[in-house]
Specification:
With 282 residues, this protein is α+β, with helices and mostly antiparallel strands. The protein is built from 6 helices and 15 strands. The two termini are 31 Å apart. Bound molecules: N-(5'-phosphopyridoxyl)-D-alanine.
């Protein structure tokens, strides 16, 4: 297999030739942001929404990357040079505050950011069709700006690992008695035909897949309440599902020891999955 070609600081080069400095702000401080987006048959999926979120993350952290608008073109170039134009996969973008000897203050404004982009073939597990996943709850020990897609993800990976070690596929964060989101997904519940999810705030990432689902609900006249689900109310819900760029929409059949609904992906979740498939096929 040919070596993967990636974008690094203005150049397309084989992955093995990328050299990142130990002084990189990402390495020392997790001082950077990222994006993950999907391509289906080589076509970028909701790319402008991901680009807008990337710009927002950069602006919130005051990381200056003037060429940010070129990112989607770079991804398209990478798809071409890696021969992935007919493939389903994931693109990953990471931008840090650059390479500068470790100091807490920002480095001089002319320090170029470190920019790394890769694309790879990837298919969602076929969870979307019938299987649904188990989740566990986990105390949300993250910082106060979960709306920024920062590369500082220790609580996310700790909680996700904990979920895997308990035979579950996602950790659901609980903060102040309510569900905020998952370790790598947004969380929705359905009760009496009404779809609930946490409102946009600093406590959640504004997921692109979350927004796609909200838009489908609006179009299809499904009632939505942007209202946090209390942990104590989980047992009163008929369905739960998660959304994210990689898992798309997946039903949740169990939270901790509690079986959700009849333990299978619920009817509203299935309907949303079908509508999502239509968008992929467009
Ligand atoms: N995860 N919440 C968190 C904490 C996330 O990390 C993600 C995405 C989401 C879902 O957002 P979207 O629908 O835009 O993918 C919600 C990415 C993909 C990751 O860390 O790999």
């Amino acid at each position: 297999m040919d070596e993967q070609l990636v974008f690094f600081n203005g150049q397309i080069l084989p992955l093995s030739q990328v050299r990142i400095s130990p002084d990189d702000r990402g390495f020392n401080f997790a001082d950077g942001v990222y994006e993950v987006l999907r391509f289906y048959k080589g076509q970028l999926f909701f790319a402008s929404q991901h680009l807008e979120r990337l710009k927002r993350s950069l602006a919130e952290l005051k990381i200056n990357y003037p060429e940010v608008n070129a990112v989607n073109n770079i991804i398209e170039n990478l798809l071409e040079v890696n021969n992935l134009q007919q493939t389903d996969g994931l693109a990953y973008i990471q931008i840090t505050r650059g390479d500068f000897p470790r100091i807490h203050q920002f480095p001089p404004a002319n320090t170029p950011p470190t920019v790394y982009i890769n694309v790879k073939e990837w298919k969602a597990f076929d969870l979307t069709k019938s299987q649904s996943i188990k989740a566990i709850t986990f105390s949300d020990m993250r910082w106060g700006r979960c709306d920024i897609k920062s590369i500082a993800l220790l609580p996310n990976i700790m909680s996700f690992q904990n979920a895997l070690e308990h035979g579950a596929g996602e950790a659901i964060f609980i903060r102040d008695g309510v569900i905020t989101e998952g370790s790598r997904t947004n969380i929705f519940g359905v009760k009496n035909g009404i779809v609930y999810t946490h409102p946009f705030s600093n406590s959640i990432l504004p997921g692109i897949t979350r927004q796609i689902v909200l838009d489908i609900c609006e179009k299809e006249n499904l009632k939505v309440l942007l209202f946090p689900i209390a942990e104590s109310a989980i047992s009163s819900f008929d369905e739960f599902f998660l959304t994210g760029t990689s898992p798309e929409i997946s039903g949740i059949c169990q939270i901790n020891a509690l079986k959700i609904g009849n333990g299978e992906t619920g009817p509203i979740t299935r309907f949303l999955q079908q509508e999502f498939e239509k968008l992929k096929a467009k």
